[in-house]
Amino acid sequence: MTHFSARSLLKNALSGHKDWPAQWPESQPKAEYDVVIVGAGGHGLGAAYYLASQHGITNVAVIDKGWLGGGNTGRNTTIIRSNYLYDESARLYDHALDLWDNLSQELNYNVMYSRRGVMMLAHSVHDEQSFQRHIHSNRLNGVDNCWLTPAEAKAFCPPLDITARRRFPVVGAALQRRAGTARHDAVAWGYARGAAARGVDIIQNCPVTAIRRGPDGAVTGVETAKGFIRAKKVAVSAAGSTSVVLQSAGLRMPLESYPLQALVSEPVKPCFPCVVMSNTVHAYISQSDKGELVIGSGTDQYVSYSQRGGLPLIEHTVAAICEVFPMFRRMRMLRKWGGIVDVTPDRSPILGKLPVKGLYVNCGWGTGGFKATPGAGHLLAWTVAKDEPHPINAPFTLERFTTGRLIDEAAAAAVAH
Ligand SMILES: Cc1cc2nc3c(=O)[nH]c(=O)nc-3n(C[C@H](O)[C@H](O)[C@H](O)COP(=O)(O)OP(=O)(O)OC[C@H]3O[C@@H](n4cnc5c(N)ncnc54)[C@H](O)[C@@H]3O)c2cc1C
């Protein structure tokens, strides 16, 4: 594996960056693996990386129907935060934040994690009470979150208009300073590179068409476009397609799949220093390192597997941004796109064993799983390797939908769902 260093960068700069070796090989499937992971998004690739690096399990294939990182990982707006309400969630998302801190060094790959702060605007007494509740709960769990007055919010984000004449006045904000953004593609590429270097096969353009079970009910492998692959352990990390994939194993998942869209403006000089979300007006915004304003809001209203979404939602999103930031009214929008997100009834993920021997799932991250990428990968790898959940993901079972021990994060899911 190429080691990135100042020396290797300089050397390759002299040859116009044309001589870098491939970062991972184009693998073809073997007949059998110890573990097959369905879905080469950040979560699946992360799980493969940690299986190899922390559990010594390297006979692993990560299989994707498209190109790696081409699902929601490569389509999201890259917001990273951990200010969720419940204790279980605080542990889960803060675990991911801890891993983000050192991820570039761990992977020797710059994932451009930027702790620029995520600020959630309050526009009403109700917003303020809800955010204060989150702040208190977060602090009890050691999660960084604080309340800002309108003037403090403006000082943190100068483009903010805090004049009282606005239709949605800013009455304050909740700020998580440790939160921020990262470069989504780099996260997938970094994990892919690290996993492949440890012997993991990454098989692209190969849909998994079914999960096969033996007479005892246990998993025996997966049917794919490139033939049957045997495996005693199969982990499904297929985001919006999870329920379709698991249906073939005879499981009906409590998931709904919705299109979620985002858009970017033309690039402009740095003018927006943090991430701002307004749940009430219903949009969020940040600025990428390329200068584009990155904008998003909620899911479409109807379930669908179309990876694009409807125009009315984009119109609503842009209107909401102009409401909060009138200075952007004359910006031109460059492009929009969509992904398919998998939403659970309590807006928390399902991460653990399934009631089929050898079958594991990581799904239900809905509109907010990018922030969890290192944590989800790490915990899925642990669960698969040890055949039991890590204490952090132990509450995030499928069974909670029958026992009633829900982890209701609908409010903390913020703008999106
Ligand atoms: C527009 C948008 C904005 C978002 N913004 C944010 C944000 O700001 N912050 C945040 O935390 N989260 C955000 N999210 C959510 C986040 O992107 C996802 O929760 C996260 O990326 C999920 O990662 P993953 O690896 O599980 O899924 P994915 O990256 O979607 O990977 C799943 C993979 O499974 C593959 N697959 C599916 N079916 C099959 C099959 N049958 N066979 C083989 N492979 C299959 C897919 O091709 C895909 O590559 C956003 C999502 C979208 C769409």
Automatic annotation (TrEMBL):
One of its GO terms (cellular component) is cytoplasm. GO terms for molecular function: nucleotide binding; sarcosine oxidase activity. The keyword Transferase does not apply. Residues 35-79 form the Rhodanese domain. Keywords: Cytoplasm, FAD, Flavoprotein, FMN, Nucleotide-binding, Oxidoreductase. GO terms for biological process: tetrahydrofolate metabolic process. Its cofactor is FAD; FMN. Belongs to the SoxB family. This is Sarcosine oxidase subunit beta. It catalyses: sarcosine + O2 + H2O = formaldehyde + glycine + H2O2; sarcosine + (6S)-5,6,7,8-tetrahydrofolate + O2 = (6R)-5,10-methylene-5,6,7,8-tetrahydrofolate + glycine + H2O2. It holds the Pfam family DAO. It is found in: Cytoplasm. NCBIfam families: soxB. It is an enzyme of class 1 (oxidoreductase). Its main location: cytoplasm. InterPro entries: FAD-dep_OxRdtase (IPR006076), FAD/NAD-bd_sf (IPR036188), Rhodanese-like_dom (IPR001763), SoxB (IPR006278). Its EC number is 1.5.3.24.
